[in-house]
Amino acid sequence: MAALRAALTRGACSSLLRSTLSRSPRQCGATPNIVDVFRRCESTLNLPKELKYTSSHEWVETEKDDIVRVGITDFAQTELGEIVFVDVSPSSEVMQSGANFGCLEAVKTVSDLVMPLQGEVVEVNTELESTPDLINKEPYGDGWIAKIKLADPKELDGLLDHQAYRDLVDN
């Protein structure tokens, strides 16, 4: 049972699983059904299948052959909490994959934004200046952060698909 608890309490839904597992049968009215809790957790991890993902929790959506839209994943925004400030500037020079291209400030922390692919930041979501919490409300929609012109669109093939990203956050 201890090994099962340890395995199930890692990942995106760890707090929900931990709270369920920590209740005694008297608190729950019955022994918690771990399978039901796990299914509820899995359904809350919002990962659109058409997007690509990075291990640093950014998502990438192809708009044109060499232009992509970038944001942070639902998992990342949940972990950060309420986003209160976004700092990203367009760049006229090509930035390397893995370079910092801005930062997000949440109520209790600051997090760097990492270039998912080599390219140039050609547009920034100006809506985030006045409403940075769009990232929390719509991480894959109006909460996008920047558009990047790719130096090499073939690099997209090296990103994670939704299942590989799900496996990453579940471990």
List the helices and strands and how they pair.
Blueprint (H helix, E strand, L loop, with lengths): L1 H7 L5 H9 L2 H4 L5 H11 L7 E2 L4 E5 L4 E6 L1 H7 L2 E6 L11 E7 L3 E5 L4 E6 L2 H4 L3 H4 L8 E5 L11 H9 L1
Write up this protein:
The chain has 171 residues and is α+β, with helices and mostly antiparallel strands. 32% of the residues lie in helices and 25% in strands. It contains 8 helices and 8 strands. A hairpin with a 4-residue loop joins strand 2 and strand 3 (67-72). The two termini are 18 Å apart. The model is unreliable at 1-33 and 35-43 (pLDDT under 50).
The Rg value, from CA coordinates, equals 18 Å
Count of DSSP-assigned helices: 8
Shape: globular
Written as H for each helix and E for each strand, in order along the chain, the element string is HHHHEEEHEEEEHHEH
Query: In which range does the helix fraction lie?
Result: 25-40%
Strand content: 15-25%
Q: Which ranges are low-confidence, i.e. pLDDT below 50, for 5 or more consecutive residues? A: 1-33, 35-43
The largest pleated sheet is described as: 5 strands, antiparallel
Mean pLDDT: 81
Please identify the oligomeric state. Answer: single chain
Q: How many strands in all?
A: 8
Helix vs. strand class: alpha+beta
Q: What's the arrangement of strands in the largest beta sheet?
A: 1-2-3-8-7
Rounded to the nearest angstrom, the distance between the terminal CA atoms is 18 Å
